[in-house]
Design goal:
With 322 residues, this protein is α+β, with helices and mostly antiparallel strands. The strands form three sheets. A seven-stranded mixed β-sheet has the order 5-2-1-6-7-8-9. Strands 10, 11, 12, 13, 14, 15 and 16 form a seven-stranded antiparallel β-sheet that branches. Strands 3-4 form a two-stranded antiparallel ribbon. The protein is elongated, with a radius of gyration of 23 Å.
Length: 322
């Protein structure tokens, strides 16, 4: 649809989200003067070593701004559905939340739309920022789309692109996409409020790349991969959840997380995974050159610059990563 007439009813928005990525969007909606009648977020959960009960980032923000908060454990629970209906929302906005049942996303008059951190249909799934970097993309973006009964497949409303730079990691790209996405959500809300928007069906391709959830076992570095692939893998998991490897040194094996590296392309004849240190630098032999390790974390230690670690860590001649 493409008209200039406004809807009869002003927007009454229910916002759904949980992590930091969603907070920037909620803030932008409020800053735009839009009416948020309720916030749906994950239940409080124990977290950290002390297993203290922790509220989601969205809940903390919502409470600080006197917004009504609902934290259902079951999105199909009749009690929750009654509370949701009673909010009287005519639009639902979803950012980094879980999959919604049809009874929820079909509820509001103007529909339910989601913000996704990729250029859909590419990178559907839970970890689009990670996988775009891991796969060596040079461009990504954000998309708003109306939710349907599948994951990230609904009709697209708006998209904006964002470059991925060689020095980017998940943290830096996350922050830029959070800001870009917040602006796109406000723009989408205003277009819906004015009944002045159009949608485009997502096209299906043979080479669609998924963005499935990342697990610890999929974060292990494959040192037999090409140099640039290892570099992209590490920055695509930094700072969280972090790429890891096995360090074998002085007859001992332990896990090691790697956060930042620098490529040194060259030809060499050293075994893959061998470590080399000159007390100032630490690098590992790979296919196509060396990967200089700049930031890492050893078990029980904090994340540190390599120069800090080398002061107290000696590597034997057979030290290697696997």
């Amino acid at each position: 649809m493409n008209t200039s007439s406004k809807h009869n009813n002003p927007l009454r928005i229910v916002f759904m989200g949980t992590p930091d990525f969603a907070v920037g969007t909620l803030k932008s909606i409020l800053d735009a003067g839009l009416d948020v009648v309720g916030v749906i977020t994950a239940p409080d959960r124990p977290a950290g070593r002390g297993r203290k009960i922790q509220e989601s980032a969205v809940k903390q923000f919502a409470v600080a701004h006197d917004l009504k908060v609902l934290q259902p454990t079951n999105l199909k629970d009749e009690g929750f559905l009654d509370e949701l209906r009673n909010l009287g929302a005519n639009l639902q906005v979803v950012v980094a939340f879980r999959m919604l049942p049809k009874v929820v996303w079909q509820m509001p008059q103007y529909g339910t739309f989601n913000l996704h951190a990729s250029l859909l249909p590419q990178y559907r799934g839970a970890a689009p920022i990670n996988w775009a970097i891991i796969n060596g993309e040079t461009e990504t973006g954000v998309t708003t789309f109306f939710i349907d009964d599948k994951i990230d497949t609904g009709n697209i409303i708006l998209q904006k692109t964002e470059a991925i730079y060689p020095e980017d990691n998940v943290g830096t790209l996350h922050d830029r996409l959070m800001e870009l996405g917040a602006k796109l959500v406000v723009e989408t809300c205003l277009q819906i409020a004015n009944n002045d928007f159009s949608t485009t069906a997502q096209k299906e391709f043979d080479d669609l790349k998924p963005a499935h959830k990342i697990h610890k076992e999929t974060c292990q570095i494959n040192w037999n991969a090409p140099l640039n692939k290892i570099q992209d893998f590490i920055r695509g998991l930094s700072p969280y959840p972090a790429a890891w490897t096995h360090l074998i040194n002085n007859g001992k094996e332990e896990g090691m997380k790697i956060y930042k590296t620098k490529m040194e392309p060259c030809e060499h004849e050293h075994p893959i995974g061998n470590l080399f240190s000159d007390k100032k630098t630490l690098k590992v032999a790979t296919k196509g050159g060396y990967l200089q390790i700049l930031e890492l974390q050893l078990p029980g230690k904090r994340k540190m610059q390599v120069s800090e670690i080398l002061n107290g860590l000696n590597f034997d001649k057979t030290a290697h990563l696997r």
